[in-house]
Design brief:
Blueprint: H1 3-14, E1 21-29, E2 34-42, H2 49-59, E3 65-73, H3 78-85
Length: about 90
């Protein structure tokens, strides 16, 4: 293997992967009233509640209305929320 190629491969392997960011939220639909709790993955540069709310409002445009972004968190909190989110776990 050529030294330059080896250095490039090592640099790629050594660089940290982007930290995943997630948000949990509450949303509703009217007539009849339906509520749901969900978890979404959001871009790393939107890892704050206000930015997550803007993204969620667009993703939920199929009739759901965002009520609240509960929190933003990293991958360490993902599995703890899977059962609570049910069908809305990483759906949007």
């Amino acid at each position: 293997m050529k030294p330059a190629l080896t250095l490039i491969l090592l640099a790629c392997l050594a660089s940290p992967a982007g930290a995943a960011c997630y948000a949990d939220y509450k949303a509703k639909k009217d007539d009849p009233l339906q509520l749901h709790y969900g978890v979404i993955e959001i871009p790393d540069d939107a890892c704050d509640p206000a930015a997550a709310a803007a993204i969620l409002a667009q993703r939920l445009a199929d009739g759901w209305q965002l009520l609240q972004v509960t929190s933003v968190f990293g991958p360490e909190g993902l599995e703890d929320r899977r059962d609570s989110a049910g069908e809305f776990f990483l759906r949007y």
